[in-house]
C-alpha cells in the first residue's frame, strides 16, 4: 500500500538498473514515488526495471548518464526537474569497485573509483539542491559500504571513496538540515549482486556466520529514510550487514 504522503514525490536513483539500486527503485515505486533511474551502460537491464515497475502500477523513467561527468549530471537533473517540476529524493547508489593492492594501483584507476563513487554523489547532490531548497524538503541517501571501516586488502580506493562519502553525508547534513533536507547514509555488508557475484560464488558463506544479504535487505531502510517519519534522522550512517561488523572473529562468536 503506498505511503499516502509519498504519492506525487519524485526520486532519482543512480545505478538503478540492477542490484541494490534496482531493489531501491522497486521499493520507492511501490511506496508511490515516481522513480527516475540512472545507469551508464546497462540499458537493457534498466528497461527491465522500468517495465516491472509499470507492470506493478508504478511510474519509472530510465536515463543514461555517467554520474562522474559534470555536464551529464547537470543535464540529467535538468531533464528530471523539467519533466516533473520537482525532485524530492536522491539515492546516490551507483559505484564501481576495482580492487588491487595500493602498491601497484595506477593513478588513473584510483581516480576512476573516486570519480564515480565520491565525485559522482557530490555532483548529483549539488545539482538537486536548488530544487530541494526551493521545496524546503528533500532526502539524500548515500550508499556507502562496510569497507569504509573494515576494508579488505586491495580496497584502498574503494574504502577511501566510501569513507569520503560518509564524511560528505555529515558535511552536507550540517549545511542543509535547517532547510528541511535530510542527508543520511546506508552502509551494506556483503550483498549478492553483479558487483559481488564472483566473490560470493567463490567464498560461499565466508565463515563469520552471517549470510550473504539480498538487495531487498537494503532497500527497506533506504525507503524508510525517504519518508516524513524519518525527519529526526540526520547525518547518520547505518550499517546493514546481518551483524558482521560486531563479530570480531568466528572464535569469539562460538564461546
Ligand atoms: N554488493 C555489495 O556487496 C555491496 C556492499 C557494500 C556496498 N555496496 C554498494 O551498494 C551500491 C550498489 O552496489 P551493487 O552491488 O548493487 O552494484 P552493481 O550490481 O555493480 O550495480 C552498480 C550500478 O551502478 C551503475 N553505475 C556504475 N557506474 C556508473 C556511472 N559512472 N554512472 C552511472 N551509473 C553507474 C551501474 O550501471 P552500468 O552498469 O550501466 O554502469 C549499475 O546500475 C554501490 O554503491 C556499492 O558500493 C554494495
Keywords, separated by commas or semicolons:
255 residues; alpha/beta; Rossmann fold; 7-stranded parallel sheet; 44% helix; globular; binds NADP nicotinamide-adenine-dinucleotide phosphate
Description:
The structure is a single chain. With 255 residues, this protein is an alpha/beta fold. The chain has one domain: Rossmann fold (3-Layer(aba) Sandwich), CATH 3.40.50. Strands 3-2-1-4-5-6-7 form a seven-stranded parallel β-sheet, with helices on both faces. The C terminus is likely disordered. The protein binds NADP nicotinamide-adenine-dinucleotide phosphate. NADP nicotinamide-adenine-dinucleotide phosphate binds next to helix 1 and strand 2.
Please state the CA-atom Rg, rounded to the nearest Å: 18 Å
The rough form would be described as globular
Output the CATH homologous superfamily: NAD(P)-binding Rossmann-like Domain
CATH topology: Rossmann fold
Number of helices: 8
How would you name the oligomeric state of the polypeptide chains in this document? single chain
Overall residue-averaged pLDDT value = 94
Q: What order do the strands of the largest sheet run in, or round the barrel if closed?
A: 3-2-1-4-5-6-7
Unreliable stretches:
251-255
Roughly what percent helix?
40-55%
* Order of H and E elements: EHEHEHEHEHEHHEH
Number of strands: 7
Instruction: Please summarize the sheet with the most strands.
Output: 7 strands, parallel
CATH architecture: 3-Layer(aba) Sandwich
The N- and C-terminal alpha carbons lie at a distance of: 44 Å
For the record, the CATH class is: Alpha Beta
- Distinct small molecules bound, one entry per kind: NADP nicotinamide-adenine-dinucleotide phosphate
Beta content = 15-25%
Structural class: alpha/beta
Tally of individual domains: 1
Family: Belongs to the short-chain dehydrogenases/reductases (SDR) family.
Pfam families: adh_short
InterPro entries: KR_dom, NAD(P)-bd_dom_sf, Sc_DH/Rdtase_CS, SDR, SDR_fam
GO molecular function, one term: oxidoreductase activity
Amino acid at each position: 500500500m503506498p505511503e499516502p504522503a509519498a504519492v506525487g514525490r519524485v526520486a532519482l536513483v543512480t545505478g538503478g538498473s540492477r542490484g541494490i539500486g534496482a531493489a531501491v527503485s522497486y521499493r520507492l515505486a511501490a511506496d508511490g514515488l515516481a522513480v527516475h533511474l540512472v545507469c551508464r551502460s546497462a540499458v537493457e537491464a534498466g528497461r527491465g526495471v522500468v517495465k516491472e515497475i509499470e507492470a506493478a502500477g508504478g511510474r519509472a523513467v530510465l536515463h543514461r548518464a555517467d554520474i562522474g561527468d559534470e555536464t551529464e549530471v547537470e543535464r540529467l537533473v535538468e531533464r528530471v526537474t523539467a519533466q516533473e517540476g520537482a525532485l524530492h529524493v536522491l539515492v546516490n547508489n551507483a559505484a564501481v569497485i576495482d580492487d588491487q593492492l595500493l602498491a601497484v594501483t595506477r593513478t588513473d584507476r584510483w581516480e576512476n573509483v573516486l570519480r564515480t563513487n565520491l565525485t559522482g554523489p557530490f555532483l548529483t547532490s549539488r545539482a538537486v539542491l536548488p530544487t530541494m531548497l526551493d521545496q524546503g524538503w528533500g532526502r539524500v541517501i548515500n550508499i556507502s559500504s562496510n569497507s569504509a571501516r573494515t576494508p579488505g586488502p586491495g580496497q584502498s580506493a574503494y574504502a577511501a571513496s566510501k569513507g569520503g562519502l560518509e564524511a560528505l553525508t555529515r558535511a552536507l547534513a550540517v549545511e542543509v538540515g535547517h532547510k528541511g533536507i535530510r542527508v543520511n547514509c546506508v552502509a551494506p555488508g556483503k550483498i549478492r549482486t553483479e558487483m559481488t557475484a564472483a566473490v560470493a560464488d567463490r567464498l560461499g558463506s565466508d565463515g563469520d556466520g552471517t549470510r550473504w544479504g539480498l538487495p531487498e535487505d537494503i532497500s527497506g531502510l533506504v525507503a524508510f529514510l525517504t519518508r516524513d517519519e524519518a525527519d529526526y534522522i540526520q547525518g547518520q550512517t547505518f550499517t546493514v550487514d546481518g551483524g558482521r561488523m560486531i563479530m570480531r572473529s568466528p572464535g569469539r562468536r562460538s564461546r
